[in-house]
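> example.struct
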């Protein structure tokens, strides 16, 4: 199979794009001399900066409408890709491939699309019928899109990000000003894309108080709209470093590289952390491990409670139907999380 130029497509979301990072080194292991282009949303193009396996990032400007579709279609047709991997399989990616290669593009042997396993997820969500018990993780599903040549090569689904020297220097300057020298650094991600996935902010506040006895410094991470972070900072009697909304994507990765471990809801912070080889304690509520987004590092931990109503959401959207609102998160006690911290630090 002669493959010189490859296109990978994934527009969102932030966590998925981090999980997708493993596909690029896997492609290079199969097609060493290939050029890899990555088509993604302009919102997330900086996530993959400095990746040595990616030749170029093509940013899709969503707000430009039909003119942007036309531009990307022209690029796809002109670049004559030997292999196209649609790692999103969304309406947008399907429109682009249809406009570029015609109605029967799925029959082309050089175009491979991710199986989103939507019907299995819907059965689990709606009827609690689980056909995903033995399913591969999302990272592994991405890696399986890479054609194997010259025999079977084990899939390396470890994620990776590449902060620049400037990214790392800015983080070190922030930590120097914070004056955390001599203390272990722990990253906390109290926010999430949807509030339904958030462990109570009051619990994070109590956890911070417990962490003070372990000689650690706490850094609060997340986006500028994560109101949980500002609430915690305002109500905390201890000094914490709040960098939510202040760091770029790769600066966030660089900050997590400096951490001993992270504690987070089911959010991108888990994936940032593990991409920098920093273990994560992930708190899952309405979502579930069967969806494929669990932490993978040996020292990482997943905390969840078994409830008949779980999972109730793919991403934290929607109202809770349990008489005890968000029992899936409320039943994960501060003591349980602190015990996980102790176990991780002992190991």
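> example.seq
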């Amino acid at each position: 199979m002669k493959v010189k130029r490859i296109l990978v497509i994934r527009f969102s979301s932030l966590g998925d794009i981090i999980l997708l990072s493993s596909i690029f080194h896997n492609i290079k292991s199969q097609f060493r001399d290939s050029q890899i282009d990555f088509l993604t949303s302009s919102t997330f193009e900086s996530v993959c900066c400095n990746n040595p396996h990616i030749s170029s990032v093509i940013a899709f400007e969503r707000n430009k409408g039909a003119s942007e579709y036309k531009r990307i279609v022209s690029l796809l047709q002109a670049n004559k890709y030997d292999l196209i991997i649609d790692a999103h399989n969304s309406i947008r990616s399907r429109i682009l491939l249809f406009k570029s290669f015609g109605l029967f593009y799925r029959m082309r042997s050089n175009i491979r699309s991710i199986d989103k396993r939507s019907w299995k997820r819907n059965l689990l969500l709606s009827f609690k019928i689980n056909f995903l018990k033995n399913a591969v993780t999302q990272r592994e599903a991405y890696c399986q899109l890479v054609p194997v040549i010259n025999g079977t090569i084990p899939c390396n689904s470890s994620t990776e990000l590449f902060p620049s020297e400037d990214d790392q220097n800015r983080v070190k300057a922030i930590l120097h000003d914070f004056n955390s020298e001599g203390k272990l650094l722990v990253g906390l991600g109290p926010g999430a894309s949807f509030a339904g996935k958030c462990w109570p902010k009051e619990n994070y506040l109590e956890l911070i108080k417990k962490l003070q006895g372990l000689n650690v410094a706490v850094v609060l991470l997340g986006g500028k709209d994560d109101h949980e972070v500002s609430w915690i900072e305002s109500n905390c009697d201890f000094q914490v470093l709040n960098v939510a909304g202040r760091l770029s994507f790769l600066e966030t990765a660089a900050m997590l590289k400096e951490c001993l471990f992270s504690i987070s809801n089911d959010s991108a912070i888990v994936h940032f952390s593990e991409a920098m080889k920093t273990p994560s304690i992930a708190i899952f509520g309405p979502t579930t491990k069967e969806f494929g987004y669990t932490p993978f590092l040996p020292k990482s931990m997943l905390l969840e409670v078994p409830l008949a109503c779980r999972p109730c959401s793919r991403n934290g959207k929607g109202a809770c139907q349990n008489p005890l609102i968000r029992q899936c998160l409320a039943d994960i006690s501060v003591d349980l999380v602190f015990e996980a911290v102790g176990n991780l630090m002992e190991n």
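> remarks
The longest strand covers residues 35-41.
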